[in-house]
Amino acid sequence: MTDRRNSSSGATRRGFLGAGLAAVAGSSLASERTRADAAPAAEAAQRTVEPFYGAHQSGVVTPQQAHTYIAAFDLTVDKRDDVIRLMRRWTRAGALLSVGEPVEVPSAKEYSDALDPADIVGLGPSRLTLTFGFGASLFAKDGRDRYGLSSQRPEALVDLPKFPGEQLEPARTGGDLFVQACADNPQVAFHAVRQISGLAYGLAQIRWVQTGFVSDYGAGKTPRNLMGFKDGTGNPRIDDAGEMAKFVWVGDEAQPWMRGGSYIVVRRARMALEHWDRMNIAFQEQTFGRKKMSGAPLGGDNEFDPIDLAKTDANGDPLMPENSHVRLAHEFALQGSKILRRSYSYNDGANVIAERWPPWRQGMEFDAGLIFICYQRDPRSGFIRIFDKLSRFDMMNQFVTNNGGGLFACPAGVAEGEYLGQRLFEAGA
Ligand code: HEM
């Protein structure tokens, strides 16, 4: 094996601050970036590079990749200029990583060989996207406006209310900064976050991370979640620019830096799979209001058949039970509340459990479930409005516990020559 640590200086290494970007701009891949954001899924499956630059950040209306690696960071600096320094680094890194180029990570010596990108040699870009977000604590933390940004906090970037049944763990929740890497190869997604984290050395540190995967992806397929149901059927279409403008992208209602951006809500939803697996399929279907194999709504035959909430059985009971997940959620869609779900399954091994009540069961329990992810134009009319009802009435709640996540404002996309969030940092007082 070639020792790249010894051979990597000079022409084979791209300078972190300059040459790499120039190489990206000049590459034949540059034309990819000018493509429409919402290319059809089949076309996306053919290509390996997703555009980094554009009016919107990538990774939102991008056909879903197979893997994700998410990280939330806490800033450890007090000056706005230091945050800007980080944003410049992350922007350059995003442009390079998305075309499969190495990123130099400066350490004590400005250009160090300490982190070598050999871990992704031969893997290609794998449709990597990086989606960045800002938490409410970037704008004010513990009553302190550390970076003079509080006047720029969007109204929609609220503190999420406490929902019934949730058990949020602080170590898995919130963060000043957020990044989601998605790629068709898990190592490419991890590599990207590892470099992003390396670039934050001395400026920000990881608060929590989360991996995820989907069973089926690309070419218009609906993945199944770990409860075995197709998940994503009722989504608005990512190639419908009108729907995306209405429900996903922020418009003139927000500060200029946020226009063309979106709000991401992430929830780490642990599933009680041991419990779920002992339920019969008819009950599981009642829980969701859809058929397990086909994904059809109860009362329909095929996955994409329209949902008819008025249909009843011989006893006059609704075919879609009153507290089924899809019925409750669909009522909001009918009232004009829509979100774009882009969730991933997760599987973080198993934990020992020891019950404190008879029969004093002890044993292992999976720590697996769904990293529920949704994008919306305004979380108050999106996730918060819908989950306020679901968290109280959804039959699915007996099998799911939310124990982490957050709400982040994902700013507009980046133009070449600009850095991520530039309009925010220039607008702050
Ligand atoms: C572990 C957590 C969750 C699981 C396993 C889950 C699973 C599902 C499944 C299987 C469907 C039916 C297929 C589809 O349309 O995608 C669905 C639909 C939906 N879910 Fe969830 N879901 C979860 C959490 C949530 C949350 C937290 C929200 C929002 C607050 C939500 C909102 C929706 C919406 C809006 C629909 C589509 C309804 C329609 O057809 O109009 N889900 N979900």
Ligand identities? protoporphyrin IX containing FE
Rg over CA atoms: 22 Å
Distance between the termini: 52 Å
Describe the oligomeric state of these chains in a short phrase.
Answer: single chain
Report the sheet with the most strands, covering strand number, pairing sense and barrel closure.
Answer: 5 strands, antiparallel
Question: Fraction of residues in helices?
Answer: 10-25%
What does this structure look like?
This protein folds into 2 domains: 38-261 and 414-427, no CATH class; 271-406, no CATH class. With 429 residues, the protein is of the alpha+beta class. 23% of the residues lie in helices and 19% in strands. Residues 1-40 have low confidence and may be disordered.
Quick tags:
12 helices, 19% strand, 429 residues, alpha+beta, single chain, 4-stranded antiparallel beta sheet, binds protoporphyrin IX containing FE, 5-stranded antiparallel beta sheet
What is this structure, in a nutshell?
It is built from 12 helices and 9 strands. With 429 residues, the chain is of the alpha+beta class. It has 2 domains: 38-261 and 414-427, no CATH class; 271-406, no CATH class.
Record the SSE blueprint.
Blueprint: H1 4-7, H2 19-26, H3 41-46, E1 67-75, H4 80-97, E2 129-134, H5 136-139, E3 177-183, H6 186-199, E4 204-213, H7 241-247, E5 262-271, H8 273-276, H9 281-288, H10 325-334, E6 340-341, E7 344-354, E8 362-376, H11 383-393, E9 400-410, H12 422-427
Helix pairs in contact: 4-6, 10-11
